[in-house]
Write a structure and sequence with these properties.
Blueprint: H1 9-23, H2 30-37, H3 41-53, E1 57-59, E2 66-68, H4 71-76, H5 80-100, E3 104-110, E4 113-120, E5 135-137, H6 142-148, E6 156-159, E7 166-174, E8 180-189, H7 198-216
Helix pairs in contact: 1-3, 2-3, 5-7
Length: about 220
């Protein structure tokens, strides 16, 4: 990591630990954290204790292993702009999912990548879900195309390159200046459970996006029926 003349060693240690454990597929011991960050256990002892005390790390009482907590996720959702977007989007998204019998999710651009910030499960017996917090390359998905402005059409439909048998229906959630604030995606599963035609799903998704934009602007429109 680049070090500037304004670097704060203790803060750098804390970020190195957080980034390491956020990327780790399993909990790590003090020794493993120290080795992976190029430091000694004694150098990291206070950092680990502080991060644990502030709730950023979880430490198993029996094994002593450390894992990344949900504190970063919770902190991000306390941001007024994101909280307002979620408050405006989730009720219409739930109505959309009930109407089309498919799951849907909401994404934003995060450091040039697609970050899923909300997900509503399909009410049908079978469906596809995306984990909240999941990150995808912007140039590898239809959602990324819409978020980055590479595709300006509302109601983009494209076979999912990562999941065969799924067609991504993506609609932009636009800001007042016409820019793309977020993207609403319905990963349409074409099975015997899919009783709603793809064209109707696309129309319903577009109507839901307009409803979300209206809610963000403070208007009171009824949920789609």
């Amino acid at each position: 990591m680049p070090v500037t003349e304004y670097s704060v060693p203790a803060l750098e240690k804390a970020f190195d630990v957080l980034e390491l454990l956020a990327d780790s597929a399993r909990p790590l011991s003090q020794t493993e954290v120290a080795e992976a960050t190029g430091r000694t256990v004694s150098q990291l002892f206070r950092v680990l204790a502080t991060l644990e005390g502030r709730g950023w790390l979880l430490r198993d009482a029996d094994s002593g292993l450390y894992s990344f907590s949900m504190a970063a996720f919770d902190l991000a959702h306390r941001q007024p702009a994101l909280r307002g977007l979620l408050d405006a989007s989730l009720p219409p998204m739930r109505a959309l999912s009930e109407k089309v019998r498919q799951s849907c999710n909401l994404s934003v651009l995060d450091a040039g990548a697609v970050r899923v910030i909300a997900q509503v499960e399909s009410p049908a017996d079978f469906g596809y879900r995306v984990r909240v917090g999941a990150v995808f390359a912007a140039d590898a998905t239809a959602t990324g195309e819409v978020l980055s402005g590479a595709h300006n059409a509302d109601g983009l439909r494209r076979p999912d390159p990562l999941q065969p048998g799924i067609t991504d229906v993506v609609v932009a959630i636009r800001a007042p200046d016409g820019g793309v604030r977020a993207a609403l995606t319905v990963p349409y599963v074409a099975t015997s459970f899919s009783g709603i035609p793809l064209d109707e799903v696309t129309s319903a998704a577009s109507a839901t996006a307009r409803l979300i934009v209206g809610r963000l602007a403070g208007s009171s429109q009824p949920a789609p029926r």
